[in-house]
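Recall that a protein's primary structure is simply its ordered list of amino acids. Everything else, from secondary elements to tertiary packing, is in principle encoded there. The following example makes that idea concrete.
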Amino acid sequence: MNARKDRLKSLFAGEVPEATPEAVAPLPAADAVKRTPSAAVRAMGLSLGSLSQEAEEAKRLREALAAGEQVVELDPNMLERSPFADRLSDGAVNDPEFLELKESLREHGQQVPVLVRPHPDPAKAASGHYQLAYGHRRAQAARELGLKIRAVVRPLDDAALALAQGKENAERRDLSFIERAFFAKTLVDHGFDRATAMAALSVHKSEMSRLIQVAEAIPPAIVRAIGPAPKAGRPRWLELGELLEKDKAGLAAQEIASEDFAAADSDTRFQRLFDRLQRSAQGRGAKPKAEKPKTIKGEAGIAIAELARAGKNARLTIPASAGHGFADYVAARLPELHAAFVAGSKEE
């Protein structure tokens, strides 16, 4: 880590680092064109990104210490989740980056403390329990590794906890659209006013309305079964909500209970359910294929009717060429004809 920082410092200061034999070895012309620039840019990008994250984490730690807050070590098993659910992941479930976070914690330790408050239940607080404002993923990783978790303990009311939680989410791993929508609805359902919920999510009034609209359109059980689905945005979730309203046969329940659905990743689960409901809706809305109309001619070869079939239904059209009043004549005789038809069917 120190060597990398020294190299970057030298570069920005205009110094040329001492060349190694590998660095001065000539390359074939093709390799020099194709590989050298991209490798250098990639290495520099990774170094800067890592240093930027380290600087941000160090800044937060300095701010906490400057505010007179102490960083303490706690048992992660004594930390409960925030009462305002914002993520649809749990450890490695629905979070492909969790194992990388866990491995980083194992190798390099915890770089920035989590934020907790004493548990609002006096009995639990007395027994050493806390509630997390942010740092749920780090706490879970420490729990699985059997490590202590470094934390800042701060007395927070519900509003302050929600604001801290939302700010942390905005600055670290982004929530997917549906996670943000349900976080918004959770805050509103807990009695927060729109202004507080908007501040926690860092959104304007119109965006807040869109988030609530989607959260109210999708049953929570469906959202939990699908997970965060980071590739699905507002339009797709709204479409899914409309398809769920038309699902009278319970296809959604069948799909989310299937083994293939459970084995898929979150985005694939969304698409599987969406496709199945869409196929069903298209099948219900399809019109029966109509046959080519059949012309019925009279004794003189004149068309007196046209019979068109579509599925189980049929339409009889009487053209003007059949003669004035013929349609009324046929309509008047229909009861008699139908009675004769029924009688013939019984005899058969």
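The first helix runs from residue 2 to 12. The CA atoms of residues 132 and 343 lie 80 Å apart.
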